[in-house]
Design goal:
By secondary structure, the protein is of the alpha/beta class. 51% of the residues lie in helices and 15% in strands. The strands form three sheets. A six-stranded parallel β-sheet has the order 3-2-1-4-5-6, with helices on both faces. Strands 7, 8, 9 and 10 form a four-stranded antiparallel β-sheet that branches. Strands 11-12-13 form a three-stranded antiparallel β-sheet.
Length: 447
């Protein structure tokens, strides 16, 4: 099978390739094509992959190209992890939002909207090229904002595009570990949108063990989300929120922490990864060692500003384990290609799963996956506090999609103004003007 990775010069591509190296079963991926607009980054990542493959029997063959159509032809699966505007764009998104006193995170609030407005037209173009050149391919989307981008691509590809995220996977593994359960054997009741979901139960042998965790003060404070949100708030919710909900529940504290930090997360990653790719420009650099060193630092500093706002210090070693989006991607490909039925938390079209949203809305819930694709399982209704957030943010996503389709600047303003973390038409108008002036990718927004 052929796997095409869009954004193939991206820093986390070796995680995906590493997962493929451990798969030796029949029907596995044998060819990987990396696509990126930056030939230098492609070369750097290809070197890391070559080091990973050294000594591995039947390692997938790797090719690289800057031609999108060439990359897509003959693909069985397309993994999309592009970053329109690069990390420079992310840093600008954060800077512009913070100057207005609102959050600029890449998937949440003003920053997420700006990133979505840049990315949706590109993702839609990719979906159309997939439909034309590889109509039988399955698209696995990791491009952020993942739920929004998956919904944009689904308007072209239908259910043949599935979004993945490592946040709910990591949350489920942490909760299972605290409860002394095997994460692979537990049923995780998780529901919401991408980066806006709640773990509402964790069943082991048919019994929901989450109430046991919520009643245990020491256990609640012993893992990442417990420290971020605090045991008292988790008990009030009766659920464990996705870590990204910290931006909603503690918004003022998060904005303050970001505004007083020496660098935003985007600026940090821009500088860190810039140094990595510069180092990789030297032919004698040990590629895999340099990548691993950079990855370790990246993981250790994840959501550092939020932990500072919560007063919880550095991440514990137990929380450094990746949620494993590369493992989710591999499990998804196996299930579809080999009809190996499994259950995964994915971003898919709603159908009738959540009655508060229409059928085409992309949601993030457990799905049954087999050769026919991913189908969301039935879930209990959302509590009203969650309904409010989910429907408000979905409304914003729909305005982003409408603005990307029409090119209407006023519709873009509406998207910003309706977001609960912006909540000002005046601020929304200034944000659109500033983002349009900063990003060439927003030139399509007409005055």
């Amino acid at each position: 099978m052929k796997l095409t990775i869009l954004g193939g010069g991206g820093f986390r591509v070796p995680l995906v390739y590493g997962a493929l190296l451990g798969d030796h079963a029949e029907g596995r991926v044998t060819r990987v094509t990396l696509h990126d607009l930056d030939a230098g980054r492609l070369s750097a990542v290809a070197r890391v992959l070559a080091d990973q493959a050294e000594g591995v029997r039947d390692a997938p063959e790797v090719t690289a190209t800057t031609d999108l159509d060439e990359a897509l032809r003959g693909a069985d699966f397309v993994f999309s992890a592009i970053r329109v505007g690069g990390l420079e764009g992310r840093a600008a998104d954060e800077r512009i939002a913070l100057a207005e006193g609102v959050l600029g995170q890449e998937t949440v609030g003003a920053g997420g909207i700006a990133y979505g407005l840049r990315t949706v037209p590109v993702a839609t173009h990719i979906a159309r090229r997939v439909a034309a050149l590889a109509p039988d391919a399955w698209v696995i989307n990791f491009t952020n904002p993942a739920g929004l981008v998956t919904e944009a691509m689904s308007r072209v590809l239908g259910d043949r595009v599935v979004g993945i995220c490592d946040s709910p996977v990591g949350l489920g593994r942490r909760v299972a570990r605290i409860l002394g359960a095997d994460p692979d054997e537990a049923w995780i009741d998780y529901v919401g949108l991408n980066h806006l979901g709640w773990l509402r139960g964790l069943r082991i042998g048919g019994r929901d063990e989450l109430p046991r965790l919520l009643a245990d003060e020491e256990a609640l404070g012993s893992f990442e989300e417990g420290r971020l949100f605090g045991p008292e708030w988790l008990r009030s919710l009766g659920a464990i929120p996705n870590e990204y909900l910290h931006y909603y529940y503690f918004n003022r504290e998060a904005v303050h922490a970001y505004r007083t930090a020496g660098r935003t997360r985007g600026a940090y990653l821009r500088d860190q990864q810039g140094a990595f790719y510069e180092e990789m420009g030297k032919p004698d650099t040990p590629a895999l060692a340099a990548w691993r060193r950079t990855l370790a630092d990246r993981e250790a500093t994840y959501m550092a500003a939020n932990r500072e706002a919560a007063g919880v210090g550095e991440r514990d070693e137990a929380d450094l384990e990746s949620g494993g989006y590369e493992k989710v991607a591999l499990a998804l490909m196996r299930a579809v290609a080999r009809d190996e039925r499994t259950t995964l938390i994915l971003d898919v079209r709603n159908g009738t799963t959540l009655s508060v949203l229409d059928a085409d809305a992309v949601i993030e819930v457990p799905c049954l996956v087999d050769a026919n694709g991913a189908r969301p399982v039935a879930v209990a209704p959302l509590p009203y506090h969650a309904v409010g957030l989910v429907t408000a943010v979905k409304a914003v996503e729909r305005e982003v999609l409408a603005a990307a389709e029409s090119g209407s600047r006023e519709t873009a303003v509406k998207a910003f103004a309706l977001h609960p973390l912006v909540d000002s038409v005046a601020v929304a108008r200034r944000l659109v003007e500033a983002y349009a002036a900063e990003h060439p990718g927003l030139a399509y927004l007409r005055r």
